[in-house]
Design goal:
By secondary structure, the protein is mainly alpha-helical. It is 81% helix and 0% strand. It is globular.
């Protein structure tokens, strides 16, 4: 009972972290933040499992970690704006992409559950020993995933994950046909890190455009866990089956469905990004609202111009700086000044504060 209560509390706290992070971190660094956090967590697990053997010491580490985490979470909650400003058209488009993303994560989880079963069964049978070192590989793959996903403005994020899925499916076939266990172990832990960062970041980014962001922010982990639990026994039966044609046929069907889901999801994201600039132009009365906001918070003309662009643009800092024809450093200074005058902490927080202020004053 105590364990169940603890897991529920951890789940609620984890969901809050998933909600706060994309609103505090810069979009171009979100995947790296997730990758670093995941890697550090895995490394701490590794150190705890291998260096701390005393029950009292483990209890102290757990208590200190829980206390530090609670303080950090409370500070994040106190500094977070609760307002969400999402247009109806954007939410509808994001909702379509969100449903396909859920389906995609379910299908990929089926592949990883099957690969996990193939690796675990050999370990359980005593024919191979997984050991502790793969956790270090898992931490490294999380770091690599964060760096690669954030590079080139996330253009190759879906392609990278698709390649990892293909590699994992191929690895299952190799293992079930007597292939080297070590290769399967490496592929599994390497791919798992990329998968975790992929579904975490994808749902985080999507949550900022949804009507219920607190639900969507941590949904990637929830979908992955529920699907892994639901398909665990099916994966074991599939691996243990003597019918090789059935195993390969099921993997082929999964691979085809994943390919379709990746295509539709990527297309939905593209259509969403295409529509957003069209619907983000200045609306009647918005210029007056911006002027009133600028007067209320003593913004300079340049700061007002910067804010106007931030309100309608999802581009990265470099592109916005080029649009305004100023340096990146100058843009950061203007954003920092805007944050200071409005009491916000980030670019997203600034935009949310503006729309909350706009609604509160009859906008």
């Amino acid at each position: 009972a105590a364990g169940c209560i603890c897991f529920i509390l951890m789940g609620m706290a984890g969901s809050a972290v998933h909600y706060y992070l994309p609103r505090e971190a810069e979009p171009e660094h979100l995947a790296k933040a997730v990758g670093i956090s995941y890697a550090v967590g895995i490394l701490l697990q590794f150190l705890n499992n291998n260096l701390i053997k005393n029950d009292t010491a483990e209890s102290v580490v757990l208590a200190v970690s829980a206390a530090v985490f609670s303080v950090l979470l409370l500070n994040a909650e106190n500094g977070m704006s609760e307002a969400e400003s999402v247009s109806e058209s954007t939410s509808k488009s994001s909702g379509h992409a969100g449903l396909w993303l859920i389906l995609l994560i379910i299908l990929i989880t089926c592949i990883f559950s099957t690969l996990d079963a193939a690796v675990t069964l050999r370990h359980a049978a005593g024919s191979a020993d997984v050991g502790q070192w793969p956790r270090l590989l898992l931490a490294g793959s999380g770091l690599l995933a964060g760096v690669f996903y954030d590079s080139l403005e996330h253009r190759y994020e879906n392609i990278l994950m698709y390649c990892m899925t293909v590699l994992s499916a191929f690895c299952i076939v190799v293992l079930e046909n007597g292939g080297p266990f070590f290769a399967g172990l490496v592929v599994f832990y390497l791919s798992a890190g990329f998968f975790v960062v992929f579904f975490t970041v994808s749902f985080m980014r999507l949550s900022t455009r949804m009507k219920c962001p607190k639900l969507w922010a941590g949904l990637g982990r929830a979908v992955n866990n529920i699907c892994a639990f639901a398909t665990g026994s099916l994966s074991l039966r599939l691996i243990r089956s003597e019918n090789q044609m059935l195993r390969d046929g099921m993997l082929l069907v999964l691979f085809v469905l994943i390919s379709i889901a990746f295509f539709v999801y990527s297309n939905a994201l593209y259509m969403q990004e295409k529509k957003e600039p069209e619907s983000s132009g200045t609306k009647p009365g918005e210029e007056e609202s911006l002027e009133m906001f600028a007067v209320s918070f003593s913004l300079t003309e340049r700061e007002k111009e910067v804010l106007e662009v931030l309100l309608v643009s999802d581009e990265n800092v470099q592109d916005i700086a080029e649009t305004l024809m100023i340096s990146r450093a100058a843009l950061y200074r203007h954003i920092a000044s805007l944050n200071e005058k409005t009491g916000t902490k980030s670019r997203i927080g600034l935009v949310q504060f503006y729309y909350r202020y706009h609604r509160r004053n009859g906008g």
